[in-house]
Amino acid sequence: MTANPPLFQFDNSYARDLPGFYVAWEGAKVPAPQMILFNQALAESLGLEADALNSGQGADVFAGVSAPDGASPLAQVYAGHQFGGFSPQLGDGRALLLGEILDASGTRKDIQLKGSGPTPFSRGGDGKAVVGPVLREYVMGEAMHALGIPTTRALAAVATGETIYRESPKPGAVLTRVAASHLRVGTFQFFAARGETEKVRQLADYAIARHDPDLAETPDRYLSMFRRVVERQAALVARWVLVGFVHGVMNTDNTTISGETIDYGPCAFIDAFDPAAVFSSIDHGGRYAFGRQPAILQWNLARLAEAMLALFNPDDLDNAVDLASAALGRFPDLYKAAWLAGMREKLGLATVAEEDEALFEDLLALMQAQGADYTLSFRHLGAAATGSPSAFRDLFVDPTAVDPWLDQWRERRAREAETDDQVKTRMDSVNPLYIPRNHKVEEALQAAEDGDYTPVKTLLDVLSRPFDERPGLERYSEPAPSSFGPYQTFCGT
What we know:
alpha+beta; 6-stranded antiparallel beta sheet; two-stranded antiparallel sheet
C-alpha cells in the first residue's frame, strides 16, 4: 500500500538555525475542530495538496491538535515597544510556528497558527482566539492582498468547538497564517536589550539569508539590510495611506523585516478622509491615527537601528550612529516619493509636474472639509475624466466647492497624451470600488459568531476583485449609514 504524502514539505530553517530564539511547544487539545474557511487559491499557490488539507485531518492540523509530519512547532520570542513603552519580553503568547515551506516559486513561507493555546510567553493569558477576530484577520489579509499590498495571508480558519470567555462567551477558533517570515523589529530588540550582540548578529545574518540574500557577502551587509527594511516599510505605509487603511496597533513587534502587513487586530478603513481617524479602543491618545502612521513607522525603524547599532560599526559607535541616522533619514523622502507616485496613479496622471503635490493636498483638504468619502472620491473621479463628474461632485456637501479643483485637475491632465477613456481605465485599475467597509465587516463577523458563515464568504468574494464593478454589489461600495458608529475595534487574535 502506498503511503499518503505528507501534508507539508517542511524545511524549518528558523528551528534549525536559531536555537535559543524560541521555545519548542505544542498546541492545546480542543474538542471539535471544524473547518470554517479554507483558502484554496493560496494553498495551490503554495504548492500544497489542497484537497488533503481541506478535510477533517486538515482541521485537526489547523486547530493545533496534531502536528503534521515534519513540523517543528515553536513559539518565537521577541520584545517590543507597545504604544511607546518598552516590554523586554513578549513573544508568541497564542501562536505557534508550525514550520516553513517553499512555495511553487521557491520562496520560503512560514506556516503559523494563531489561537492555538497558551505558551511560555502567554503572560497569564489563555492563548486562545475567538471566531470574530480570526475572521477579521482572514478578511483583512485577503482584502489587502487583492489590493496589491504586501501582507500576511490566511490559509484556514477553524472552529475549535470551545467556548472562550472574553467580555461574553464566544466560539473559539484558530487562524492559520502564511507569512514571508515572522521576523519583527521586536525580535532584534529582545536580544539587543540583553546586550547579546552576537545573537543580534546571528539574527541579522538569518534575516539577510532569508530576505536579502544578495547582500550576504557584502562588507556592509548589516547597514545595507537596514536600508532595505527602511525602503520596504516606507513603500508599505504609503500603500496603506493611499487606500485609507488604519493599522491601529503599530507596535515594534508588529513591524516586519519583510515589509509585509502583519497582525490585523484593531484595524479599519476610513470612510470620510480624516488624518486623526482612530478606531482602536485602546489608542486613547491617537498615537496610531491614520495620518500619523508614516511618522510612527519611522520611529519604529529608529528602534531597529538602535538594536542593530553595534553591527554597523562595532569599533566606532559614533560613526555607527551617523550611518544609521543617514539611512533612517531617507525615510521621509522615500515615503513621500511613494505617496506622490501613488497619488498620480489615483488621479490618472502619467507624468510629473511641480504643482502635483499641491493639487493632491488641495483635494484631500476638500474631502475633509466637505465630508467626502475617501474611497469613492477617487473611484468616481475616473468617471469625471470622461465628462461625467456628477457622482464625484455629489460626494461633497457643497458640490460647487470642488469645481475649481476639478478645473485645475482637468488643466493638469490636458498636458498629457492619453485619451479620456485610457485615463479612466487606468484610474479604475488602481482605485478600488470595494474595500472592507467597517459596517459590512462587522455585519459579517456578527453573523459568523451566530453560526452563519455565508456573509463572510460573500464578503471575501466581493473583496477578491476590488477594482471590478459588479452588478448587485452596490451595498458593498457604500459608506456606513449615519446610524453606524462611532466605530471601535479591539485587539483579538
